[in-house]
Amino acid sequence: MSLLKLVAPLLLSIFVLSSKVSAGPKKEFTYNDAVLKKSGNYTLSMPIGKDRPSKPGLLVFFHGSGATQNYAANFETLDQVAQGLGLLAMAVQAPNAHDTWANHAKGPSNQHDIYVKNLLDKVFPTIPGLDKNRILFVGISAGSTFLSGDFLPRFISRYQGGAVLLCGGGGPVTTDRSLYSPLSQSEAKAFPLAFYIQQADFLNRQTVEGAFYWKSRKADVSLENPAGGSHCGFDTGKEMARLGRKVLSR
Hints:
Mean pLDDT: 91
Distance between the termini: 28 Å
Structural class: alpha/beta
Helix content: 25-40%
CATH class: Alpha Beta
Number of domains: 1
Low-confidence stretches: 1-14, 16-20
């Protein structure tokens, strides 16, 4: 399997979601990792009263390449999707104003995977009643590439819920053998992965290879690969909601 990892260009697509659910309150925070010497912002939905589930899960969103400064521009749609699934919404910004989440094919690791793990270790205890069995990671373009090839290969066994990988994906760019060992049946069942990419998308081949990487690790993987299209040229909000429901219901 090719280990080529491309980085998506500036992503300008806007989420569209036909829903009557209104977005709720939100708050932006700054996280500083003193050990890694990385910092960045994240935005978290903060519903109150009857609008807040008593035991919510969490949707964690990773933006595409070039969208670092506007990482939460479409937070209202994320929040609507999350509410429909009984989750809170969280959008995370690539640290240190880096233009992308994913590792490049050559050079040392950018350690964004460790940064996110440390960030979530800090955030989870601050969310009252958080249902850690319903953690949904969602990526778009290079955000999906990061999840599929950098973060989840190393840390999938820490989480339960699932991942929705839209118009992006891939396998690791490292030959670390530990990232190619099969998952246990319980690990695979606890965290399904759903890929969605159109065949005309320039990241199609890389994403399909990513799906096969996860299949080789005995993960619970689905891949939808419709003909035609363009890069993220579909209703991303609609597919995020549909596939999110699919993985969380397994």
